[in-house]
Specification:
heterodimer; A: about 400 residues; alpha/beta; Aspartate Aminotransferase, domain 1; Aspartate Aminotransferase, domain 2; 2 domains; 7-stranded mixed β-sheet; 3-stranded antiparallel β-sheet; 13 helices; 12 strands; globular; B: about 375 residues; Rossmann fold; SH3 type barrels; Elongation Factor Tu (Ef-tu), domain 3; 3 domains; 6-stranded antiparallel beta barrel; 5-stranded parallel β-sheet; 8 helices; 17 strands; about 30% strand
């Protein structure tokens, strides 16, 4: 960098690894480096670390340890859930119907599209309201005997809206159809009790809750038909082949433990900052809207659209002004397309192109929020002038 | 510069060695550097071949920025480029001239849209990897000079700049020769691709301009008569856009001595041809003239005039005229003065101004 790093307000993109998590991981790189599948004592120590991590994660999820599958990231967890459950449902009961929300992460929506295009599944998109929320009644209306899987995101990454998983889960259970939920964004701030949420599959990625990148997990309720998406050795109960990434699995479990323990304090830190930001911004900037649900949303998440603004240009100006934030969708080639999620909310293109996402975390302070509120009106105005050229 | 008063410069990156070295030199001089790369229009399906801004070139520019440690952003200019530059190119050919779209790109895209963007990022200056130099005179005006490397000099395409832009422009590589620039790249450890220099237009993507025209402006294939100056009909041409002034081959006429394209008579859609000794003109009329100082010199002056990017200097007398025009009278006739291209006026190292070649006659009512 040319100068001091910008104020980081992009915690939905990724988080720094908690020092306690780093400390928990370190012994498993060069000291206890064994392969958990090995017979000898080094292998046993590594296996113990992985199984200990599994128990730790299961405690947070309120499930059995053998219902936790470690993967390489949230996207892999989503892929395993969708492919694994879809293929198993077709194999076991000839089911070919997929019911998917239009506000899923691409890890889910692009996988569902491939299942439709290459594997003959019938893909049906659930409707959402103007806040991007799925109505459980719409799920009930669309569930069929041949529905292979329902997938509804817990908390959306772009707009922060929460979905009523427990109600949807109860309906799916009645119909005998598994429910998958991507909880990658939710994990840092929301309860992950899979019994209360009534989900059968739940995807996590460690780097969204102060854990390391490159490790994720999938909760698989006992009895949920699932075929492996990656075949090979018998690791992870035969559902995910490949030598266990011991230090990262330990890191995920430690980060998840801390997240559950410190959840109230973390929420109490970010929510007032977020509320001040939303209120101040909507007051100061004309033709600005909050996207997503005003209340039923992640406590650290603020997302906006501005009419007649190129979101990428605004992000660049904000970076130059010292704020690291995001738009609806990450684009690094300068080809802005309105996000599918924002279009699903019914936003016109001239609004949807001008999106801004500010996601807060441990390092943010009230002074930083005020600084952003001071800088933004002028930058939005400049971005509007540029876009009008 | 001390860290407190460091000035900010946006460098227009292309992924090539020149703009990469420009950024490196400015960093070394103490500027705070921001890299920006224009994403320009390509024909759908041919994005990978655009000479200036392929995904490869963008990745290259991004790597240079990461290696030198400055932020890098792409700027989507595809719509503006298509509306302003590609349509100018197509319209020019439709009107029978040979347009130079790079001039329009420099004026409206690079030193228009990108320049505004740079200012909105808080930049004090904008830099490019062009081979040209700048010098501030006693009155505070900024003069545009040829690059040190005469073979690489790009001041021709920069004659469209105005004081507003020149005051905030930096051309760091113009002080060096191309071999020196390559050495500087090595010194900074920049492994930028040795792309061959090309004079092709970026959006042609290696295509022949005639094929591009046929796809996008099929009405240019409008046949008409091939005439001598005396009005004798020699044959039929395929459309004026497919011929250039001075062209000898490909006329499809059997004649006792070689025939050359002398002129395009747009009013009659006629291609005028003749012998070699009829070829050439000792005068031209330029329009849309830009004077780098902001106003024309008080009267006629002697200058060296370039009628194409790579043309040699031709001594001439230039007479500023009302309506942003100028009359140019050459000491010797030139064979390939081409309407649509720019005529740029130099005195020594300095660019005084330039404009679009309107016609080969200045006797017409002005």
């Amino acid at each position: 960098m040319n100068r001091a790093d910008p104020v980081y307000m992009d915690y939905a993109a990724t988080t720094p690894v908690d020092e306690r998590v780093v400390a928990a991981m370190l012994p498993y790189f060069s000291q206890d480096f064994g392969n958990p599948s090995s017979i000898h004592r080094l292998g046993q120590r590594a296996e113990a670390a992985v199984e200990n991590a599994r128990e730790q994660a299961a405690a947070v999820l309120n499930c059995r340890p053998d219902e936790v599958i470690f993967t390489s990231c949230g996207s892999e967890s989503d892929n395993l859930a969708l492919r694994g459950a879809a293929f198993a449902a077709r194999q076991q009961r000839g089911a070919r119907h997929l019911l998917v929300s239009p506000v899923e992460h691409h890890a889910v929506s692009h996988t569902a599209l491939q299942l439709q295009q290459l594997h003959g599944f019938e893909l049906e998109w659930l409707p959402v309201d103007e806040h991007g929320r799925v109505d459980p009644g719409e799920v009930a209306r669309r569930l069929r005997p041949d529905t292979a899987l329902v997938s509804v995101i817990y908390a959306n990454n772009e707009i922060g809206t929460l979905n009523p998983l427990a109600e949807i889960g109860a309906l799916c259970r009645q119909a005998g159809v598994p429910l998958h939920s991507d909880a990658v964004q939710a994990a840092a701030y929301l309860p992950l009790d899979v019994q209360a949420l009534q989900v059968d599959l739940l995807a996590l990625g460690a780097h969204k809750f102060y854990g390391p990148k490159g490790v994720g997990a999938l909760y698989v309720r006992k009895g949920t038909p699932l075929l492996p998406a990656q075949t090979g050795g018998g690791q992870e109960f035969g559902l995910r082949a490949g030598t266990s990434n011991v230090p990262y699995i330990v890191g995920l479990a430690e980060a998840l433990r801390i997240a559950a323990q410190e959840r109230p304090a973390r929420t109490a830190h970010v929510q007032p900052l977020r509320d001040r930001l939303v209120g101040g911004l909507l007051e100061a900037i004309p033709e600005a809207r909050l996207t997503g649900h005003p209340v039923q949303r992640l406590p650290n998440h603020a997302s906006f659209v501005f009419r007649g603004v190129d979101g990428n240009a605004l992000l660049t100006m904000l970076d130059a002004a010292g704020f690291a934030v995001s738009s609806g969708s990450a684009c690094k080639t300068g080809s802005p397309e309105p996000s599918e999620v924002l279009l699903a909310l019914g936003l016109p293109k001239e609004w949807a192109l001008g999106s801004l996402r500010v996601t807060l975390g441990a390092s943010n302070t009230p002074a930083q929020i005020e600084a952003l509120l001071d800088a933004l009106p002028q930058l939005v105005q400049q971005a509007r002038q540029l876009a009008a050229r | 510069m001390t860290p407190e008063n460091r000035q900010t410069v946006v460098v227009a990156m292309s992924g090539g060695v020149d703009s990469s070295v420009a950024a490196a030199l400015l960093l070394e001089q103490g500027y705070r550097v921001i890299g920006v790369m224009l994403r320009l229009w390509s024909e759908p399906g041919r994005e990978d071949s655009n000479r200036c801004c392929t995904p490869d070139a963008m990745a290259q520019a991004r790597r240079v920025a990461a290696k030198l440690g400055f932020p890098f952003y792409p700027l989507d200019a595809r719509q503006a480029f298509k509306n302003r530059v590609v349509s100018y190119f197509l319209d020019g050919y439709a009107q029978g001239v040979t347009p130079n779209p790079c001039l329009v790109c420099n004026r409206h895209i690079r030193w228009g849209m990108l320049f505004d963007y740079a200012l909105s990022l808080g930049a004090d200056f904008m830099a490019t990897g062009h081979y040209a130099r700048l010098r501030r005179d006693d009155t505070g005006r900024v003069q545009l000079l040829r690059g040190v490397d005469q073979a690489k000099d790009q001041s021709y395409v920069l004659h469209v700049l105005q004081q507003e832009q020149l005051q905030r422009a930096l051309f760091p590589v113009g002080e060096y020769t191309k071999p020196e620039v390559r050495q500087i790249a090595q010194r900074f450890g920049l492994l930028v691709a040795q792309r061959p220099d090309s004079q092709d237009l970026c959006f042609l993507a290696g295509d022949d301009y005639r094929d591009f025209l046929l796809r996008h402006q099929p009405q240019v294939a409008s046949p008409g008569p091939i005439l001598t100056r005396q009005g004798e009909l020699l044959g039929e041409h395929r459309g004026l856009a497919f011929y250039t002034i001075g062209q000898r081959k490909g006329l499809g006429i059997a004649a006792p001595q070689p025939l050359y394209v002398l002129e395009k008579d747009i009013a009659r859609n006629a291609l005028v041809v003749g012998s070699e000794d009829e070829l050439g003109s000792s005068a031209l009329l330029a329009s849309e003239v830009n004077w780098l100082d902001g106003s024309p010199p008080p009267g006629a002056f002697q200058a060296a005039v370039k009628i194409r990017y790579k043309a040699a200097d031709a001594p001439a007398e230039v007479t500023p005229m009302p309506g942003r025009r100028a009359a140019v009278r050459f000491q010797q006739p030139l064979r390939d003065i081409t309407p649509g291209q720019a005529a740029v006026f130099y005195q020594g190292e300095r660019v005084l101004g330039g404009g679009i070649i309107q016609s080969l006659h200045i006797e017409e009512r002005v």
